[in-house]
Design a protein that fits this description.
Blueprint: E1 3-7, H1 11-24, E2 29-33, H2 36-45, E3 50-53, H3 63-74, E4 79-83, H4 87-96, E5 101-104, H5 110-132, E6 140-142, E7 150-152, E8 155-156, H6 161-172, E9 178-179, H7 180-184, H8 193-210, E10 217-220, E11 224-227
Parallel strand pairs: 1-2, 1-3, 3-4, 4-5
Antiparallel strand pairs: 6-7, 7-8, 9-11, 10-11
Helix pairs in contact: 2-3, 6-8
Length: about 230
Amino acid sequence: MINIALIEDDEPTSNQLRQWISAAKPEARVDQWFNRDDAEAALLREQYDLVILDIELGRERHAGVAIINAINKHSATPVLVVSAMPATIYRSIMKALDAWDYLQKATFSEDDFIETLLEILRAVREKKSQQKVAPEPVSISLDPLRQRNPIWRGQRVNLPLTAQRILAVLLEHQGQVVTYDDLYEVVKSGRNRENIRKHVSTIRDAFREIDANFNLIENVPLRGFRWVSE
């Protein structure tokens, strides 16, 4: 069961987002909260996999910021912010608060919302799996004859050229955050976050063909990715 808290004071908007969530994840339980007090009480009482919230709740202009701070004190629940506040200003603020992503109302489509939602839920699932299964001490090497082609558990990982370049950057900075801007430098076209995410997804899928429990590429909300040090 996936448990999602939807904190939005505008009821039509809340219901629309709930419909989109249900369309993408029919099995998800969605609790709707319309004010800060009820939301904070629920967050203390329930264990959620994801919190989706607005910054402004009623007359409180920055109620969402207070809720995120409260979440960060007690759990590592990912937060997706959906707000009418200008993204040019608030995206950096949400980044500093470790929110997963920021979607500005009236500028994103149902597909944008669902894609972001599914990406977060996949990361939540991977994290749970990682907690249940302790990874074996393994190492990765680059094929000296093919320069960038990686060898994983003694087998060559088949990757297209751009994915190889992205992997090489992640490996070069193991344990460090590699930003989207850093990764733009190694792609010749499609220099946007969605395209980078697709390349990273390709890398993960290729490794999982060899190792179903592979989970060493970590999403870093609003920043980029990190190859977790082994």
